[in-house]
Design brief:
Distance between the termini: 55 Å
Order of helices and strands: EEHHHEEEEEHHHEE
Largest sheet: 4 strands, antiparallel
Bound molecules: coenzyme A
CATH topology of the largest domain: Ribosomal Protein L22, Chain A
Structural class: alpha+beta
Number of domains: 2
Shape: globular
């Protein structure tokens, strides 16, 4: 079977402090039918094993769609074929669920609410998109935030809390993905802030909010980049 033409992904404008980062967005409902037509050999044995390990067909298809997008975009950036992109675990990444990496390019992928976002750059980075939860979800997610973030949330209007929690989580997970730890690092350790501007939780890293436009009203997204000239002090 020959792969159908890939759906075009949309280019998003990167924040001012990270203009070197290339950001793309694609829609899962458009990616899934295309990914079904992609040859099995696009995936390496570890990816095929992971795909086959999903019990729910929709999870399997979503994983396949994300991986096909990732391989297609990385192939374009690296000047190779999708099947030849040498994806593997980042150095030091724990187990098969750790941060994926390719030599010569940094990337980070995230999906929520039917959207898949992918950032690529020559410096280390992490990207996360979160769907605004309902009030019960927001309450659960807020329990494992930094103590200062929890205090600020307690002072936030109840009706605004879900959107603020999604914003904080997107910032936090983007940082944890940039570090490569994911949630194995305690989310209550780093204060990314609840306010309009992200805090600076760790020297050498900059957390930035992303604007997803009208299509992203129910989502919050953030990007963390390694600073080009790390400063020794944190300014929050
Ligand atoms: C990495 C993690 C933060 C992802 O969060 P998420 O909101 O579920 O999913 P996202 O769509 O934002 O990101 C998933 C992508 O992040 C990347 N990723 C996975 N582990 C990563 C890590 N340690 N660091 C950076 N990026 C990682 C992969 O590209 C993954 O895509 P894939 O699933 O198609 O391979 C989270 O799942 C995690 O920390 N997992 C490892 C620890 C764990 O499983 N804990 C149990 C839950 S408490």
């Amino acid at each position: 079977m020959t792969a159908a033409p890939a759906p075009r992904w949309e280019t998003l404008e990167a924040p001012r402090r990270a203009r070197d980062v290339a950001l793309v967005r694609a829609r899962l409902p458009e990616l899934v039918p295309w990914a079904r037509t992609v040859e099995d050999d696009w995936l390496d044995p570890a990816e095929r094993a992971r795909r086959d390990g999903y019990r729910r067909p929709e999870d399997r298809e979503a994983f396949l769609a994300r991986r096909c997008l990732l391989r297609a975009v990385l192939a374009e950036r690296l000047g190779t074929e999708p099947a030849a992109v040498p994806l593997g675990p980042a150095p030091g990444a724990a187990g098969r669920r750790g941060k994926p990496a390719v030599p010569g390019l940094h990337f980070s992928l995230s999906s929520a609410g039917g959207q898949v976002l992918l950032a690529t750059a020559a410096r280390e980075l992490g990207l996360d998109v979160e769907r605004v939860p309902d009030s019960t979800g927001a309450e659960q997610m807020s329990r494992i935030l930094h103590p200062a973030e929890r205090r600020r949330l307690a002072w936030t209007l109840r009706s605004r809390r879900p959107a603020v929690v999604a914003r904080v989580w997107a910032r936090k997970e983007s940082l944890l993905k940039a570090l490569g730890t994911g949630l194995s690092r305690d989310p209550s350790l780093d204060r990314v802030g609840t306010g309009r501007f992200p805090a600076r939780p760790l020297p050498g890293w900059r957390v930035l909010d992303l604007d997803l436009g009208p299509d992203g009203r129910e989502l919050r997204a953030a990007l963390t980049v390694q600073e080009l000239r790390p400063s020794a002090c944190s300014t929050m």
